[in-house]
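sanity check this:
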Amino acid sequence: MKTNREPRRLWRRWLAAGTAWTFAYTFAAAAPAAAELPASGKIGDVIGRVLSTDIRASINGQPIPSMNIDGYTAVVAEDLRQYGFEVAWLPAQHKVSIHYASGKPAEPPPAQQDDPPSRVGVKLGDVLYTDIQAEYDGVSIPSYNIGGQTAVRLNDLGPFGQVEWNEQARTLSFAPGETEAYKEHAPLVIRQTAITELGPITAADSVVRLKDAVIGRIADGTPMLSIRKLAERLGYLVSEDARQHTLTLDNGVNRIQMTPDRKGPSLYWLGSETEGPDWSKAPLIENGDWLVHEQDARALLGCSTDIDHSDSQWDYRCAEYEVQDYGVLDSSPSYLYGVQADAYLDDGKLFIPALIARNHASQSLYTEGRFNVFKTGEAAGDGGLSRYKLAAETPLDIKDNDVVLQITNGYKVLYQKRFAPATELLGASGLLPDDTPLPHGEYSRISLDQPASALTATELASVQVSGSVRTAVGSKLKFIVEKREEAGYREVWEQSASLPAERFSEELPLPSGQGLYRVRIQSEQQEAAGVIRSDFDIARLYVRKTAGDPIPSPVDAQAYTPPASAKLHELSGSWTAGSYPERFVGYRGMPLALSLDAYDFNSPNGFWLGSPVEVDLQLTHVGDNSLEMTKPIVYDVIITRVTEQAGESVFQPVWHGRAPALTGSLKPLYYRRFQFSWDMKDDDGHPVPPGNYHIEAVLPMTYEYNDLSTGQAQTQLAEQTMRTHALLTAEWPQP
């Protein structure tokens, strides 16, 4: 099966449909018997050659790429998926299953022009020894490993349809016989095949027994079980290194290796190491046996239970599964790589396996995978099993993707594929498709006019992003510009466009010199409960800036003149409520404590010029009794520019704002919060220059309220503290 794209490309470029060559082919000759191939060997040994052929092969009249192996015309089994066949890779059985599905849409690749006849007999690659078997409708047929894929000879398919050889035209065709109708399904199918029940397991007098056999003990109130004894009952082979105290459990597919002084076990699937967990509790090694936490034992062996650690008796249900890979895609039309699986399970008796996708490219990328599962109904003709739909997705970058796709049952790996999916950026718009594997609620949907593709290049200091809004959710679109650096992406710019609007057109600066930039267009997102959540990427674009130095600051600090008079900005919005779990000390023992904070998440050390400054005002009740405000609290906020003149700090007011009135009551440990953004423009609407700024709540002021426990009217003088103002430095991004 295909494990990587490159080996296929080396020889596959010769095998375009309609482009086929051979040395010799005699249809009358019998197919080489299995004995003609090496009966045994080391996996990966070279046992033959793949040659180009001038014989044109076809399936149901459609041209298919072909090659010459041992003098016979062969095709890649995985290619048959595009010609109406179901081709499944069953990794646990080391088997490729081929089946023609009547009615499955055929989507063969476009034919290409013939190459010169002199190309006949050119070596395209090696035939490698493999233990992978191929089956057609359950009948074993000869197969070959070429570049990580499985090849089969067309004449070996004769018993399952009609093979015709035209010597004059030098064509070989195969028409499969009629079979059952095609049923659409996900690229991955998980089917429960058996359940082994271990029980009853009982805990009494600090001893844990499986039926009558001792399998562990209670240590510090926790069942610690012999992983060896449980694994042996499930058919694992056990080996140990007495000197190293290492224990290995192997069932031919999964291998568990445990070594002292390690944080967790080492796990392997079909010989490849997988990511292992840490121990929930350090194992106990007693008389050569490993006693592990009950949860670890269960998860490592892929078992389910209804155990409550307060119970003294429970059972394990350990399921076996068959996973079929019908062709997981190795590319994505958007920045999200998604995959689905159909699972057929014994409803209610087992935990549902997890389908997980993660991009391990680098710590700088968003690598977390999201997954979901839901029941879709009973599966007719599947022994009463219920059908579930599993889905997973993970973000991709323009390059260096390293995606691990797994199906797991606890810690037990049922399927794994590690690959580098390509993003189809040159011919794509960079938009999130309307139909994603996982639900994302409602979000704005847009169409892009500029740039024309998701990857573009420019020598300019900015890029124009424009398009139309098909569906508007929320009040704005956000545009974030990031530059790719060695450690990851660094945000260098952010701006917004108001919604609803039929069109948007934003000029986004590329302020940090040459290199690769990523533009993220974000929408507010409405979830099923009607909650609006922002920061959801609906498109990602990449711009390669090929020339130019960092652009200068758009505002000259020397020429800037502060506003001649103040203009009060009435801020819109409302106060939200929250609470703290623990009490803390307020200012001078007073019950009401004010704090002001300013943030810019685009810059780790300061604030990017022109990027919004997020400001929080929060009034917290740190007293003992509930309070009722008898006079509305109105906070004014002032922002001043701080400059140095003759060694002294000079504060020049540039912006004034007023928050909505705060009224109502406050319980102890509850707070009220108001949030707003300053767009780094002054009272006259002009951008401010780079430099230092001071933001503060205008104090002192007096709070007036009633103590609801005593009924007494009280007042509190609110004064400036270290929590009621903030300093910020507005920087212009530099490389």
